[in-house]
Design goal:
By secondary structure, the chain is α/β, with parallel strands linked by helices. The protein has 14 helices and 15 strands. Helix content is 38%, strand content 13%. Helix 5 packs parallel to helix 6 (144-156). Bound molecules: pyridoxal-5'-phosphate. The site of pyridoxal-5'-phosphate has 12 residues, from helix 5 and helix 6.
Length: 432
């Protein structure tokens, strides 16, 4: 790891394309750009900064899907048992790279369903209201689907969401709470807290929570803790096992590049595997060698896979496998060290911009994403950037989000983006 980090060591940054190109030359992951399809318009490649929304398609995804189609074509149901790529054990191929990325033990990870479905399944197991202890702490500005999931789940349990869901309100309007505000809220609600459920990286501002300190604070007051890692997985360093997180779930179409509506993942700490636990169950959670005995009683696989309900969706597995193979080949630690350099480069270039139109709402602790909040003319800035070939996103009412990723973006991409942004701001404020 130290070796790779050293490869980026160079003289201090300058706001020049030469500096960007020099960083690219030192980038051990430079070639991975070509492993992905980049969107084009009129034959021109666009610069894609939307890995936080839908990661790009790996070129090998199609072959991976075709492989499943061929297995099905040639062997029908026998494909579940036949060969190295047999469908019954394919799940295990996904587990090992995901365990690396999430800092989990392999048997703590499973691949199943989609994110919001998994939030509900985790709530079944980890929301355990008892006596006075029945509150759930979430962040204000949580992703809407998470809010709906939690609210509808507690209603299903017979509670009024207003009584049990506590939103941590930030001191600063319009952004999520700071890490300290989260910790303070945990202490404040103490023995009334059943569960702390927070995002790892907030989707709106890109803020990275200190999940270790949140998990520790939750444990200290006797609450369980779970994270929605939609914007964190494949983006930031995670140590779910060591941090003693109870559960986590994520989607795989953002930084994991597994395609629209990709199969999602979940982490369940091993301390919960053998315990008597409330869980919704299906035949795919049964131990492999018992699964087809079709017995009356559920015999748990004894690991995170026990939460699986249904037959593996092999076409979706194939997409995730194709993308995880690239991450494995590139090396997760290499991605993190490039990421770090990209963050420094982006932060540096931001300081060179006139900031008479926007303010940065992303705190220092973050992954790829930067969110800029515009006091005025934001939509116009966004449209002009789009016309210049940059794919970024616009969040109502006033935020531009952009997320350069280590696998398929370059330091030069980032430089061009800021150079164009500077030109646009200068044009738009010329007569102010
Ligand atoms: C992207 C995202 C979702 C989307 O949920 P799906 O069930 O995959 O549609 C949910 N929560 C968060 C925090 C997200 O970032």
């Amino acid at each position: 790891m130290a070796v790779e980090l050293q490869r980026y060591n160079m003289t201090p940054f300058t706001n020049t394309i030469a500096c960007a190109q020099q960083l690219d030359q030192h980038d051990p992951l430079q070639g991975y750009r070509d492993w992905f399809f980049h969107p084009t318009e009129n034959g021109h490649e666009r610069t894609y900064f939307l890995g936080n929304s839908l990661g790009l398609q790996p070129k090998q995804t199609m072959a991976s899907i075709e492989n499943v189609l061929k297995q099905w074509q040639q062997d029908g149901v026998e494909s579940f048992f036949k060969g190295d790529d047999n469908w019954l054990q394919f799940h295990d191929k996904l587990i090992s790279p995901l365990a690396t990325i999430t800092g989990s033990l392999p048997h703590e990870v499973t691949v199943m369903n989609q994110l919001t479905v998994n939030i509900h399944l985790m709530m079944v197991s980890f929301y355990r209201p008892e006596g006075r202890r029945k509150k759930i702490l979430i962040e204000s500005k949580a992703f809407p689907s998470d809010q709906y999931a939690v609210a509808s789940f507690v209603r299903h349990m017979g509670f009024d969401p207003d009584d049990v869901i506590v939103e941590i309100n930030p001191s600063q309007e319009g952004v999520p709470p700071t890490n300290q505000e989260v910790i303070d809220a945990i202490h404040q609600h103490g023995n009334e807290l059943a569960l702390v459920f927070l995002s790892g990286v907030n989707y709106y501002t890109g803020q990275l929570f200190d999940l270790f300190s949140v998990a520790k604070a939750a444990r200290k007051v006797g609450a369980l803790v779970g994270f929605d890692l939609a914007h964190a997985v494949g983006n930031v360093d995670l140590r779910l096992h060591d941090w003693d997180v109870d559960f986590a779930c994520w989607c795989s179409y953002k930084y994991l590049n597994a395609g629209p509506g990709a199969i999602a993942g979940a982490f369940i700490h091993e301390k919960h595997h053998q315990a008597e636990i409330n869980r919704l169950e299906g035949w795919w959670g049964v131990k492999l060698n018992e699964r087809f005995l079709m017995k009356k009683n559920f015999i748990s696989s004894g690991n995170a896979a026990a939460w699986q309900l249904s037959t593996s969706p092999m076409l979706l597995f194939a997409c995730l496998h194709a993308s995880l193979q690239i991450i494995e080949k590139a090396g997760w630690h290499n991605m993190l060290s490039k990421q770090q350099k990209m963050i420094e480069w982006t932060d540096f270039l931001l300081t060179t911009l006139p900031n008479n139109l926007f303010k940065r709402v992303t705190p220092q602790q973050r992954g790829c994403q930067i969110s800029l909040q515009f006091q005025k003319k934001g939509k116009e800035v966004y449209s002009r950037l789009f016309e210049k070939g940059f794919m970024i996103d616009w969040r109502e009412p006033d935020v531009i989000r952009f997320a350069p990723v280590p696998l398929y973006n370059s330091f030069t991409d980032i430089w061009h983006f800021f150079n164009s942004l500077r030109e646009i701001i200068n044009e738009l404020t010329l007569n102010d």
